Amino acid sequence: VDLGGAAGAEHSFEEHTGEVRLEVVAASCEELFAEAGRALAELMLGETPEVLELSPEQVVEVSAGDRAALLVEWLNELVYLSETCKQVFTRVRVERVDDTHLRARVAGVAPETLKTAVKAATLHRVSVEPTEGKWRATVVLDV
Amino acid sequence: MREVLVSATATPVSEVVYEVARDERTGMNVPARIIADAELMGQIARDHSIEQLLNVTTLPGVWGCVVGMPDMHEGYGFPVGGVAATVTPDGVISPGGIGFDINCGVRLLASKLTRVQVSRVLESLVHELSRSIPTGFGRHGRLSLTEEELDNVLNEGCRYVVGTLGLGFSDDLERIESGGALPGADASKVSVRAKQRGHDQLGTLGGGNHFIEVQEVETIFDSEAASALGLFLGQLTILIHTGSRGLGHQVCTDHVRAMDSSLARYGIELPDRQLACAPFSSAEGQEYFSAMCAAANFAWSNRQVLTHRARTVAERVLAGVGDSELEVVYDVAHNIAKLEEYGGRRLCVHRKGATRAFGPGSPELPERYRHVGQPVFIPGSMGTRSFVLVGAAASADLSFGSCCHGAGRALSRHAAKRQVEGHVLRKELEAQGIVVRCPSNAELAEEAPVAYKDVERVVHVVAKAGIARKVARLRPWGVLKG
Question: Residue A115 and residue B413: Cβ atoms within 8 Å?
Fold first, then answer.
């Protein structure tokens, strides 16, 4: 399973009573969105997933009215594709991202079970911002 | 964005009711009421629940007061354990006030047998339930519906599942809230994506805190009500907790997106984007309501198919013991919006992690339960007791006919895992004679009793407030976690 991210990109799952708050930091906006996608896969598979064969890559494109909504839209697209393709997308490459549009290539694995089933990403306190030379994002996932 | 920044002052108005006045913060349209005692208020105040409840008071058209239940905890947008009513036709409907798992709910099945009678085969019963109910991620063992069948499920709910698919008995229908079918449902308002997610999920449990529990009626508090519900001491029961699965999740996702985009058009400003909403009478409001009703029908149908699977297993495993019949006691929704009348107004009552709890006499209750009130089921955390209650008269005035829905989380999943080791918990549960079927120890730890509020206290508070009466306590003997 390829869960490796770009150098400098990091994510953490922060405290939230009922759900999961994901925080991501990366050097570029592209890497920020890619790392958020990889974090989603880690949440779904657990930290030590079994080794599985990767599916062929597929292109994903999403649009939204602003960059924060775009992050929610992107994660929700991955949730939708996961459930309908029965895959978890562990290899994520974001080719292009701006305020309202994202294009990425993803490949996934097909596990028998999920560690955590993710229902959706939410707009609750969502943010995507450049701060101190890095890109930072926060998003709450309903699990 | 209109921010709610100042921390709130909740004033006790009785031992179990607190209120936050409407002038506590700028932008509040109504006061907030929290049903809790001092201990539970202390737990509730530890996260962002009260702030989220006050955010809900800012919704356009919100009526009376918003209500927090004693099991309330932080959610996204609305708190979990929140009730808000808006005046139709022009007050708003908010998909976040129902949540992603539309009509997540609980159904109780009652056996004719006692737990003692089935003790020899109890482990087999739990094992066979786990084998027959798909909980995995793949396609194995799933009932796959054609497009037409899925549309029928969405439009007609349990009437179609029982009447046409033959998965259940006609008697089941009157023992399901709203007969298992909301009249406002319209399958054509459910997106292709939602249907793609749901087409093979009917009769599946799903992950998170969803479960099936095999239980015993351990205590009867109200023998008249217990008898009306067909419950007796020592009886074997099965509790099913699940919802509308990916179909419902996608319906919420679709309509939060649409309403987030239409806020400016309706001049709506919100303190939290996940409260995205639109006037009930607007095109966006009507489309969401029709889709939500369809997703609610899917959820009731899901619990109906699970009931059918449980009956099939019971017939096989319990046949050598005695009468293997399983009767539906009732089925309640705890994430839903419903049109209800209060004080001559037609309100859209949002219940997010709250159960309808109409008191005796309500024409919406089946005749067999009308004299005792609506059955309400309050699952405890894994390994702890669950409760059967009936709605009481005070619920209409205090909480728009609503009650709590569970124990309510007190700790995050991370915090629970720091305090509890899954393998230790598994051994503790097994030492109590509880058969556990859960994919991993880590998931077990996330749902550990320590992660939840004390369900006994939560139930005591709603009973003391007069919104529901205690009928019976159920002791778990087998847990199948999704």
Answer: no
